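Entry for the shared binder. Reason: the reviewer on the internal report wants the predicted structure included alongside the sequence.
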Amino acid sequence: MNKKVCLLVAVGLLTSSGLLAEEKTKSFTGQELVVTATKTVNSIADAGGSSVTVITAEDIKNSGQQTVEEVIKGTAGIDVVANGGLGSTTSVFMRGADSGSTLVLVDGVPVNDPSSSSRKADLANLMVDNIERIEIVRGPVSVLYGSNAMAGVINIITRRGSGAPKAYAGVEGGSYGTWKAYTGVQGKKGALAYSFDMSRLKSDGFSIADDRNPRIPHEGNTSERDGYSNTTISANIGYEISKRVRLDTTLRYIDSMVELDDYLWAGYAGDRSDADPDGRKDNHTDSRRFIGRVALKIDTDPLLSTVYYNFSDERRDIYDNENEKTDLYKGNIHEVGWQGDLSVAENNTLTAGIAYQKENADTESYLYKSSLDKTAGMSSVFLQDQWKTGGLKLVSAVRHDEHETFGGHFTWRVAPSFNVGSTTFKASYGTGFRAPSLYELYSDYGNANLEPERSRGWDTGVEHRFSGVFKAGVTWFRTDFDNRIDFDWLTSKYAQVPGMTRTWGIESFAEWNPSKSLFLTAQYTWTHTEDADGNPLVRRPEHKVSLSQTWKVNEKLRLGTSLLWVGERSEITYAMDKDGNPAGNLASYFLVNLSGSYRIGKNLELYGRVDNLFDEYYEEAWSYAVPGRSAYAGIKVTY
């Protein structure tokens, strides 16, 4: 495997000489505009000491990937674990923290599911359609976003229409009987800016139960395919009512279905695990999600006011092999608020905000005759100051949340940075919290006396541009978690875990832009995790390395390569093999993906990708299968 890595890296480096295309492939980190780090528009360089990564629309296109989870997998500080193929449950671990410690937004709207056990976000059905960029802020930022932002925030931002109207349509297909058709239109005419996109993806898939793992049961047919389908419709509409008043609306609707397998205590057991292995195999989950935001912006210089309404509604219907519904999960979030940005001076911006958020979880288990229908509200107020002078930039903020169940909670954050020539020194320190989920509070396993989880974390780093073509940086981080909530097997209830859980490590990157047509980037993350007993947290690798290259050979041809190595990870203690033995650690793995596109004329583009080039065998979670070598190709027409 090491020979493969060395060969591909060498090829990437050798191609840097003599490339003379006119258009740059990408900008250096620090030049992109972001909003998530401060809730105001800044370049990364002006966002204080925040640790920020921006994945642009160009990055997404160059990767050739179709899902958000695949696009962010190589990002420093981010680990993504999927329980199978397309549409299967997907968890995000940021800086080694629990999946419920990361808040996921779509256009600023929280999409963490209130009906899930820990209110975590599931990325399974989020496609990259109509996405302008993905902003990732690492470190506690509850001071801006409230609950669940204990480890950081991922904000998926929809493309805004601009310029002359244009439309596009495309179709693609490939391995596992996968095909996708999509179309869209965007532009600006007078006061109206618009962007619409619609796609339909369908795949025959592969068995979610890992048919290549000899240590799990195979009597239930682990070779039968588990299919997936997804329809996504998105819109971004802006209207300038006047020169100082603007109305913005973003909407995203997702309708998906994924076929599943039976589950045994030892692991996944195929499509049928009972006494009738040849019976019906209709185990599946239907999901529907509707996400939206309406915001009215009023500019009364020097104050910019934004009044907004956010909503996220999700429903999951789960069916067994007899096609009988066993479970229903409905979760929704509704939020209203106001934010004011006051530019008191050229070097100072003061931001204040108030909001009220209400969440509801409505669940029912037809199998176990249990149900839950609970609502909780939380009001919030925050104040942030951004100040800069010379090379010094300082962002500081404080927030108070008042929850209907556990009462008030304060969070705060400070994030300074300092530029000295081509070097930037940065740091941040902040606190975060996660309110107990409605399931943890009120289900049959709930505990109404739970307190919120709390975090405090800091990071410090340095970035340096060595020349006009090379930039590198390293960040040291640590986050401590207290009052962590977990399931207590002795009482069969959720409870606070005594003691402190800690995560710490290093995030580093290097970017090389040796010519106008070649861009290479490398990222390395070392993460150490310890629970209160000193044990590592499960499914978090200690080491992760990613490398990517984009080469615009000429005005028509683009080639890309991405490499990802993920180190060994511990697995959950109750993961057993078919003989009742602990599954043990998950082995390290190495993936190579290739992508490319070729433009035929002005309006036609051919593109394709190869995933897992060397057909690497690995598991992200015990007994769950992952794709082998697979290839996809498509054609896109723009007019």
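Summary line for the report: The helical segments are 2-14, 57-63, 68-72, 142-145, 438-442.
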